[in-house]
Fold TerC family protein.
Amino acid sequence: MDVPLWVWALTVGVIVAMLAVDYVGHVRTPHAPSIREAAWWSAGYVGVAIVFGLIVWWVWGGTYGGEYFAGYVTEKSLSVDNLFVFVLIITAFRVPPIMQQKVLLIGITIALVMRTAFIFAGAAMIENFSWVFYIFGAFLVYTAWAQAKHSSEEPKEFSENAVLRLTRRIFPTTDTYVGDRLTTRIDGRRHITPMLIVMIAIGSADLLFAVDSVPAIFGLTQETYLVFAANAFSLLGLRQLYFLIDGLLDRLVYLAYGLAAILGFIGVKLLIHALHTNEVSFINGGEHITAIPEIPTALSLGFIVVVLAVTTVASLAKDRSVRRAAAELGAEK
């Protein structure tokens, strides 16, 4: 896939412009968005991502267009998992509703910058070491198994990671928010506020999710441009998605199983791709035969969409059944 430098520059410019619209239109006027507002903005971001994919399809062909859409759908679905952690962080830090948009936006911006560095590092490893596909694939299979194993457990409370603990140790921190300020001066000494701490928490937490999601999308496409674009567009709409489905997150009881299936599938796909890349084959009657055919992008995209649809429908049906049973029990009492 030949992507000229000016196309990279234009894409980055569009992403920066979308961030600027968010900062100017939302952060400068703090407010808690309504469901209607969040829905419109979420639809807008998804629309931009779809238009970008159609442009890729038109300019570079259906193969790359399909890889982008498979990557975007995967990153978008995995980003819902991020939202569970975001809810825990925002609840733990008791972020006032009017400030949550700013917290999420700056935290996501931090995550986008760090994830971009992660993507280019991963691309460099793939370019120079073909065996890294084995590591990515095995890691995703293990992650899928771990997620499926722990998905039935009760959600844990948020605990500060090493980045936050180090930040608190180095910098003096206020106990309460000071409006929406990130730092403040007390007795002539500069302190950071919980506002900055929670932004760092969201950014660093998302970087941990990148350890799963970036190898996953490299299992669907090895084009750095598509990996970057799919990650960026999925992250940019995450803030609006948070406010849109905040009340639905606890109802998606089977989502973790679906994400585990997707990660496991992509992990196996990566391992198969590694066998082909490293030209691993077996001998049958004196003839070298490739062990397993590679999984086509169309099949990957179809599997991802079907799994997400089934787990979402099953989750909502389960939630409806539980609520009905609870209502009947309450009526009997």
Q: What stands out?
A: Residues 297-332 form the longest helix (36 residues). The beta strands are 183-186, 189-192, 281-284, 287-290.
